[in-house]
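Form P-L/3: holo structure prediction, ligand manganese (II) ion.
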Amino acid sequence: MFTLPELPYAYNALEPFIDEETMRIHHTKHHQTYIDNLNKLNAENLNLEELLKSSDQKILNNAGGHYNHSFFWQIMSPKNDHEPVKEVVDLKDEFTQAALSRFGSGWAWIVAHEGKLKVVSTPNQDVPIGSPVLALDVWEHSYYLKYNNRRAEYIDAWWNIVNWQQVEHNLANANTGD
Ligand code: MN
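OUTPUT (holo model):
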């Protein structure tokens, strides 16, 4: 059984950059739905890592939805007291461009892959290749209530709530992990 992970902050903690209602719906409805679907579909009780390799597209969509959102909540923080990570800041423009140009629903990522940091974007709930360092949800459900169709404003505002401590941790793990 999969369960919804608790947010490491309150629903209103990321205001004014992400509004309380968006966070509440995003977490308790969107993320919860991926988890509910996964629990219904996963008759064999496989773990998330195994499900992410499934050949069943429904399982892939919901496993990806659970994995991506669980990562996303951790990469944001209301505290902005940690030094930004230079290697990641250097990729900010490229990352912003990837987030902006992702057509339809999907994600922008910075991943560590084959010893390098790379900017990639994925459609829908696909997970990226490599070890994720940073991720931004650009599905409309992540910004529409506050920003309507202004994705660029959402992306720009979101940089204010990046959890740099977590980014640094992800980067350190990626360097040693694969
Ligand atoms: Mn989402």
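COMMENT: The chain has a mean pLDDT of 96.
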